[in-house]
Each structure stands twice: as structure tokens, then as C-alpha cells.
Amino acid sequence: MSVRIDDMDRKILSQLQLDASQSLDDIARKVGSSKTPVWNRIRKMREAGIIGQQTAILDPEALGFDACFFVLIRTSEHEADWQQKFLAALRARPEVMEAHRLAGDIDYILKVRVQNARAYDAFYQALISEVKVHNVTALLSMEEIKNTTMLPL
């Protein structure tokens, strides 16, 4: 299903990105509409897959996940079986916040959130015991400068 996005939809999406727990009344008031048209637009955008899963954003450091590593992975394996095994290993690990397949010298980059360096080492040891990789480079983030889930609508 294809949905055409107009200025009103963008205003609604911006409000949802700011705080998806807002009431329909609050969103409607902020975008200059009424509740029913806002609800219908949100429903259509959900059905079209424009609006996905709604979650709460947690503070990792407040929960003891003080270390954020960016893990660069090079592999000499590019067969479908290896890739399926690798992707399954990543999906099974809650420490992996993001995983991207890249173009260029690095094959994959992972964003891994753990309590500390020892926890990262346990993650690393488990990963390399499950799948063969050519080279792994871990970069510890010293400071998070910007982190957002908001698209520039």
C-alpha cells in the first residue's frame, strides 16, 4: 500500500517522533486539526508501514550499560550459509543495538552496548566462537555527542 505524505502527515509524524505517548487530542491541537482526521491519518500510515513499532527509549547508562562499542568486522566468507549463521548470531545477541552491512573495506559495523570492557570481551569471544571472521576492530565511544531516532521531516 502506497500512502502519499503531505504537510499535515509530516506535522503528525514530527509530533509522534517527539513523544508517541501524546494523546490524539494533544497531537490534533498541536498540528491544527481535530482528533478523527489525525487518527485516520495515523492509522493509514501504520497500515502502510510508515509508522512502525512504538517503544520507550531507555537511558543505557542509568541501567548500567556504560560502554558503547562500534565493532568493525571484515570477513573472507561471503557464502549464503556463513551470512545466515552470522546474521542469526547477531540477532540472538541483545547487546547488538545496530548492525549494518557496508560497502568498502569493512564488511559490517555493529553498535554494541554492554556494561564494561569485560562484558564486551565476553560478547566478542562468544561471537568469534560461533562464526569465522577475518578481522575485528572494536572502537570504544568515549562520549556520545548526538543520538536521535528522529528523521529530518
Notable features of this structure?
Alpha-Beta Plaits, 153 residues, four-stranded antiparallel beta sheet, single chain, alpha+beta, 5 helices, 2 domains, Arc Repressor Mutant, subunit A
Report the biggest beta sheet as strand number plus sense, adding barrel if it closes: 4 strands, antiparallel
Q: What is the radius of gyration?
A: 20 Å
Q: Please identify the top-level CATH class of the largest domain.
A: Alpha Beta
Helix content: 25-40%
Question: Overview of this structure, please?
Answer:
The chain is α+β, with helices and mostly antiparallel strands and 153 residues long. It folds into two domains: 7-47, Winged helix-like DNA-binding domain superfamily/Winged helix DNA-binding domain (Arc Repressor Mutant, subunit A), CATH 1.10.10.10; 61-140, Alpha-Beta Plaits (2-Layer Sandwich). Helix content is 39%, strand content 18%. It is built from five helices and four strands; from the N terminus they run αααβαββαβ. A four-stranded antiparallel sheet has the order 2-3-1-4. β2 and β3 form a beta hairpin.
Itemize the secondary structure elements and their pairings:
Elements: H1 7-18, H2 24-31, H3 35-47, E1 67-74, H4 80-91, E2 96-101, E3 108-114, H5 117-130, E4 135-140
Antiparallel strand pairs: 1-3, 1-4, 2-3
Helix pairs in contact: 1-2, 2-3
Could you give a short description of this structure?
The chain contains five helices and four strands. It has helices at residues 7-18, 24-31, 35-47, 80-91, 117-130, and strands spanning 67-74, 96-101, 108-114, 135-140.
